[in-house]
TrEMBL record:
It comes from Helianthus annuus. The lineage of its organism: Eukaryota, Viridiplantae, Streptophyta, Embryophyta, Tracheophyta. This is Putative GINS complex. Coiled coil: none annotated. It comes from the Eukaryota. InterPro entries: GINS_bundle-like_dom_sf (IPR036224), GINS_Psf3 (IPR010492), GINS_Psf3_sf (IPR038437).
Amino acid sequence: MLISLLQQIEPRSKVELPFWLASELHLRQAASVTVPPCFNKKTREEIGADGAHVDLTRCSYFYQLGCKIVQS
């Protein structure tokens, strides 16, 4: 089922996937992965400057996803 789904996606398409699926596809070299915008350079600089006043509503699972990224 997953293989048939992957065959329907055009090469170089950008799609949002759950972390568990994105990491598995990346391990199998079937996809490249980019970090979500909530972990981009701008957000990291905001946290470094004044972490107490950063709006993390841009990523509702900021801490949980951050821990998973670090562990993988």
